[in-house]
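Hi everyone, sorry if this is the wrong subforum. Our group has a chain we'd like a structural model of before ordering constructs, and none of us has done structure prediction before. Sequence below.
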Amino acid sequence: MSPEEPLTTKTNDTFYQTVLDAIPIPVFVVDSDVQIRDLNAAAVSLLGLGKDAVHRRRGGDVLHCLHATDVEEGCGRGPACKTCDIRTSVTLGLEEGRVTRKRVNLQVRRDGDHVDVHVLMTVSPMPEAEERLALLMLEDITLINHRQTLIPMCMQCRKVCDDEHRWRDVHGYFQEHAGVDFSHGLCPTCLKDFKV
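Answer:
Right subforum, don't worry. Here is the predicted structure as tokens:
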């Protein structure tokens, strides 16, 4: 196939699914009622359910939102659903065509217990779709949120004290606990003082 030739529908579908599955965080394709239309491999792994088991079910029902059982009709129909961060963000994303990204606290049921799950939620409208759809990405940041609010740092060497009371290099600490990598440069003040 030459670069000028359009991709066939089958090739488009394969490419779409390959790209979706390459994203390492759970991604759901949802409609305006937060019904799941598609999901990636990371979402399948998170839910422990196949695509057919979640297709056309609402997000709160599938994610076991604490409020999904407030009323018989399920997710999106109870009083708490009016202020649901996911539902509100999907609606805004689809109506205004904008990407939203924010931290949210999901209250879910796991093994019969009420659990708070902290996620970094991204909602991105899919403008090229035949119907109004959005990508809903949920990055679990619960472990990061449960870390100490204040991280002890040595004022001399700048090492940080982790939960096991080991003094660690700040770069290694954030790489392990937050998946953050650092790049290095010079701020404008230090650049002035830098001698080559």
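For your construct planning: Strands lie at 27-30, 36-39, 100-110, 113-125, 134-140, 160-161, 167-168. The domain at 9-142 is CATH 3.30.450.20 (Beta-Lactamase).
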